[in-house]
Amino acid sequence: MSKEGERVTFAVIGGSQAHKFIQGGHISRERLGSRETPFGPCGVIYLAKAKEASFYFLPRHGEKSYSIGAPFVNYRANIYALKELGVKRILAWSGPGALSRKFSPGDLVIVDDLLDETKTRQTSFFQSRGLGFIRQNPVFCPTLRSVLKEVLEEVGTHFIPGGTYVATEGPRLETPAEVRKFALLGGDFVGQTVVPEVFLARELEMCYAVLCYVTNFAEGIVEREFREGVLFEGLSTKQEQAEVAKALNLFPEIMLQVAGRLPQVENICHCQESMLRYKKRGDIGENWREWLVP
Ligand SMILES: [Zn+2]
C-alpha cells in the first residue's frame, strides 16, 4: 500500500490501446503533461492513483488516439523523463503479431528475448562517450517478469511465460518473406516497439519488462483476403479482434496488481547496477544526467 507523499518509482508505458486506458474510468489520474528533456519533449505523462499504489502512465502512441507511429515515438525523451521523475521500474505493453500458429490473437505473453530489426532508431543515450557496452542477458528484467507472472496466475488468465519478440522499424507491416525470415531466426512475435525502450532503460539503470498481447497473425501465417478500409485490411477477423479486446480489458487490473506488489518486492536482477563498472572505473559519477554529456 502506498502512503500519501511516498515517492512513485514505477511507471507503465502503454501501447496501441493505451489512450482508451486513459479515457476509461478505470483509475483516477492526474495529467502531468509533457516534459522538456535534452532530447526534446516527451509524451504526455499521467499519475495514476489507486489504493494499491500510484504509478506514472505514459501512453506511447498519444493520449487521445494512435497519433504517434512506432518509429516516430521519442523514446529517449520518454525514458529520460521517467528517470527524472524518479522511476526505477518500467512495465511496458505491446501488441505484436504472431509468427506462427502456436499462438492466437488475444494470447498474453511475457516475452523473454529480443531480435532487433529496427533500422533508424537512436538506441543509446551515450553518443561520443564510449559508454554502454552492457550485457543483454537477460534482456528483460527478471524481477518484473516474475511479479507479472504471479499477477497473471492470480488473475487466473491463460498466458505464455516466454517468447522472442522481433522489433521492426514500421510503420508499415511486414512482408510475407520477412515474416518467414523472422520465424526462421527464432522469433515468435513481431512488433514495432520495445526497441529501443528496453536498451535505453538499462542504460539509465532502470528495470524494464513488457507484457504482450497477440494482436493478429503476421502476414502469411494464415490465409486472409485483402479487405479495403478496415483495420489491418483484412489481416485480422472480427472474432480475433474480440479476443484482443477481451485481453486488453484485463490490463487495468494487471497494472494495478503489479503496482501494488512492487514496493514489497526485492530485486532479483542487476538492471539497477548496469553502469557500475563505469562508476568503479571513474568514468562517470552518481549523477546520471552527466553520463549523457560528452
Ligand atoms: Zn530489474
What do you see in this structure?
- Helix content is 25%, strand content 20%.
- It has 294 residues and is α/β, with parallel strands linked by helices.
- It has a single domain, classed as Nucleoside phosphorylase domain (Rossmann fold, 3-Layer(aba) Sandwich), CATH 3.40.50.
- The strands form 3 sheets. The chain has an 8-stranded mixed beta sheet with strand order 2-5-6-1-7-14-9-11, with helices on both faces. Strands 10-12-13-8-15 form a 5-stranded mixed beta sheet, with helices on one face.
- Strand 12, helix 4 (176-184) and strand 13 (189-191) form a beta-alpha-beta unit.
- 43% of the residues are buried.
- The mean pLDDT is 93.
- It binds zinc ion (ZN).
- Zinc ion is lined by residues 141, 143, 207, 267, 269, 271.
SSE arrangement:
Layout: E1 10-14, H1 18-23, E2 28-33, E3 36-37, E4 40-41, E5 45-49, E6 55-59, H2 75-84, E7 89-94, E8 97-98, E9 108-109, E10 113-117, H3 142-155, E11 159-160, E12 164-168, H4 176-184, E13 189-191, H5 197-203, E14 207-213, E15 216-217, H6 238-249, H7 251-261, H8 276-280
Parallel strand pairs: 1-6, 1-7, 7-14, 8-15, 9-11, 10-12, 12-13
Antiparallel strand pairs: 2-5, 3-4, 5-6, 8-13, 9-14
Helix pairs in contact: 3-7
The chain binds zinc ion.
Entry keywords:
294 residues; 8 helices; binds zinc ion; alpha/beta; eight-stranded mixed β-sheet; Rossmann fold; 20% strand; five-stranded mixed β-sheet
* CATH topology description: Rossmann fold
Q: What coarse outline follows from CA principal-axis ratios?
A: globular
State the CATH architecture.
3-Layer(aba) Sandwich
Major sheet description = 8 strands, mixed
Percent helix range: 25-40%
Radius of gyration computed on alpha carbons: 19 Å
CATH superfamily: Nucleoside phosphorylase domain
* Unreliable spans: none
**Spatial strand arrangement across the major sheet:** 2-5-6-1-7-14-9-11
Structure annotation, total helices: 8
Class, according to the CATH hierarchy?
Answer: Alpha Beta
Record field, number of beta strands: 15
Distance between the termini: 41 Å
- How much strand? 15-25%
